[in-house]
């Protein structure tokens, strides 16, 4: 996970464990339910957005495989990892995976890279710990 940066492309392929999950919200009706989870692997952590039936299908402790995911900004301008329309997410197993909780890539302030404005670079760390999911 540590190598991902915000982009408008479905190019993230990763295996991670879900550490925590917030309650689902239905801001625009039940068909648009979403919930935020804290995902991590052995290199970094990130906020992972679950949509619709995914909110019920995945729980803390699940090991997840994300194929063609996207790490970008949501409507609240928070950087989140998600499957998006083109990506795919599936459960591989439970509970047995090494992980770290820092750095949390969603807690980093990103800005266009000076030499390549199409790519982003880390500018500063918003918090050494997740503001939404306190350390375990």
From TrEMBL:
The keyword Membrane belongs to this UniProt entry's keyword annotation: no
Cellular component per GO, a single term: SOSS complex
UniProt keyword terms in alphabetical order: DNA-binding
GO MF term set: DNA binding
Transmembrane spans: none
Gene Ontology terms describing biological process: double-strand break repair via homologous recombination; mitotic G2/M transition checkpoint; response to ionizing radiation
Protein name, UniProt field: SOSS complex subunit B homolog
Organism field: Genlisea aurea
